Amino acid sequence: MDLEYCESVNGDACGGVFPYKTSLGLCAKCKKLADLEPGSAEHQSWKEMKQCTGCGVAWKNLQGTVCGRCSALGKSGLAQNGGYTFFIHLNYIDRLAKSAIEASRNARANAMDARMNKQPSAHPLHTTAGLSNAKSNNTPTGENKIFISVGCRIKSSSKRGQGGTDPDCGSWGKPWAKEDYLSEVLDDALNTLNAHWAKTHGMPLQRSEVDFRWAGNKLFLPGTSNNTIGAVYKEYQTGEMAAYYSPNDAKVKKALKNQLSMALELYVNQPAAGAFMDSAPQGPQGRKRSATSTSLAEEPAPINKRLVAVGAGEQPRSRFIRTNRSVSDGISNSATSIRLTRAHTTCDVETGQVDTAWPDDAEVLNGFIGKSKLATGATKEVYQLSIGSTLYVAKRFFEIGDGKDDVSAADNKKYLMSELDRLKMTAWFLRNFKSHAKQNNVEISTGIDVSDGFLVRKLGSPSPASGLPPMEFDKAVWLVEPRRTTSVQKFSGTLAHPNREDELGLTLIAFTHFIYDTSDKELVLADIQGSPMSIDKRDVMVLFDLMSHTPASDSGIGDHGPAGIQAFLSQHQCNHICRGLELSAITHEAPDGVEGD
Ligand SMILES: [Zn+2]
Ligand SMILES: [Zn+2]
Ligand SMILES: [Zn+2]
């Protein structure tokens, strides 16, 4: 469950999203309504009451959309030593995925380091990936990084406002590894801007309200902005494109000497209402990271503190400060060399049935697995894995309901197989959904994909990352997926199916309904989340870590059974795609005569 979602097992939630909600489950209004007799005068008056979009509390005479407490949280919070920054951090951005950016950078550097040092001759140079890996590792430190500066441009209808970036938002920059994704830079920039934005606007900006543009308000070409930084640099900053897109600020160029650089703008697609008129407290300038901030502590320091965040009250020209990130470079010995075999998984084209087999004569593959985790979810941990010269992520369970770090090898294998089933099934449904939409001439967002995935078994004694005792030979199983950006967007919760207005969101809502229909009401897709990627010049949302609810609660971890199905039925709002595909009518009647929200 996510704190900000209003959700419950018995269908009396509104499914709303409240960033300042402070307890799990129902929002304050739904909690109140659940205690009252449906149809009573009191129930009716509470039901009609306006609700704060921040915390979810209902107020009889609420002015505007946000209550005083929520707007005060925004105004006073930052002054109290960054507490507010952390608050947004917890609620808005997956905290651990965020700290994982730092961790993944280390782990990637280390994994590569390990490969280069331990296996110099085995490194395949005949592949493109192998060549570029070798190249990037042979360049002197520093040249492998690209300095990205970010300013802000706020959407404006007036000519004056369109002229340039907003000086009150400040600008900042730091070097990034070529292997990092531009979407990770965007998350980072949004986080930085929100420290200021939330103070003056009461609410932080959402991911859907911002985009990257090149300095000078130049747009990205479709299908390019979710690439790795290295790929973006190559496409826009070399060859013929460079004359148009490369940064032309002489001062910046001089400051960066010979370092590769890109100048971007965070475009805010929301008109500013008197933006940044307050005199804001000064952000920490050029503060060096403490030694602990590079560790994988469970409670990471707010990432904003490590950035160059600059407040108002200065000339824009003087705001540019380089952050020293060299601390995190070149740490060795963090990967374990492993030998593994791959399971063979098939998905029946006709029925969608998934079958996984472990052939005895499977080819033995060589790889490296990171010793420290990249990210942690509620139930799974994620590690960096390389096989040959290809980078992947490897996932395993550490919590399946019997307590933390108490998952047997057999259970881990069983539930990872269910995870893979969910990926393969969803991919199968998605293919059918797309062709059904085509047949019915219904326009849907085509930028949706499901992550590839396969299972591997480590040969010999389990690696430290597996969390298994050393004598469990050949027992450590991992779910392996291609490496992606750590930037994640959520579309539904375990029991919350909020409505959305954008094409991608509407398509995923209809897709959930389509699966329910075509599975003969046996499957409700939940916890839909994805990472934005540019694949073959297309912008694609790659779905992963999906959850499902089935009548017998037997589809894997997080399956809430009939209650999970009911949550979908009571919250789903059919849209034009559902209707275009002639999906079944969904009744909002809750079982046992309990009235839904
Ligand atoms: Zn609610
Ligand atoms: Zn509020
Ligand atoms: Zn529908």
Indicate the CATH topology of the largest domain. Protein kinase-like fold
Helix content: 25-40%
Low-confidence stretches: 75-104, 110-142, 272-332, 593-597
CATH superfamily of the largest domain, by name, is MHCK/EF2 kinase
Instruction: Write out the distinct hetero groups bound to the structure.
Output: zinc ion
Strand content: 15-25%
Estimate the global geometry from the Cα principal axes.
globular
Q: State the major sheet.
A: 6 strands, antiparallel, barrel
**N→C terminal distance:** 18 Å
Mean pLDDT: 77
Secondary structure: number of strands: 21
CATH class of the largest domain: Alpha Beta
Cross-sheet strand order for the largest sheet: 7-10-12-13-16-15
Structural class from helices and strands? alpha+beta
Task: Name some characteristics of this structure.
597 residues; alpha+beta; Ubiquitin-like (UB roll); Protein kinase-like fold; 3 domains; 4-stranded mixed β-sheet; 21 strands; 18% strand; binds zinc ion
Task: Give a structural overview.
With 597 residues, the protein is of the alpha+beta class. It folds into three domains: 1-76, no CATH class; 83-328, Ubiquitin-like (UB roll), CATH 3.10.20.620; 335-593, Protein kinase-like fold (Alpha-Beta Barrel), CATH 3.20.200. It is 30% helix and 18% strand. The protein contains 15 helices and 21 strands. The protein has helices spanning 28-35, 41-48, 68-76, 83-92, 95-118, 128-138, 159-162, 182-201, 229-237, 242-245, 250-256, 409-439, 503-518, 561-571, 576-580; strands at residues 50-51, 58-59, 145-154, 172-177, 210-214, 260-268, 335-342, 344-347, 354-357, 365-370, 375-376, 380-387, 390-397, 448-450, 454-458, 477-482, 489-490, 524-526, 529-535, 538-544, 547-549. A six-stranded antiparallel beta barrel has the order 7-10-12-13-16-15. Strands 4-3-6-5 form a four-stranded mixed β-sheet. The protein has a four-stranded mixed β-sheet with strand order 14-20-19-17. A hairpin with a 2-residue loop joins β19 (529-535) and β20. α3 packs across α8. The longest helix is centred in the C-terminal third of the chain and has 31 residues, at 409-439. The chain is globular. The two termini are 18 Å apart. The relative contact order is 0.12. Residues 75-104, 110-142, 272-332 and 593-597 have low confidence and may be disordered. The site of one zinc ion has 8 residues, from α1. One zinc ion binds next to α1.
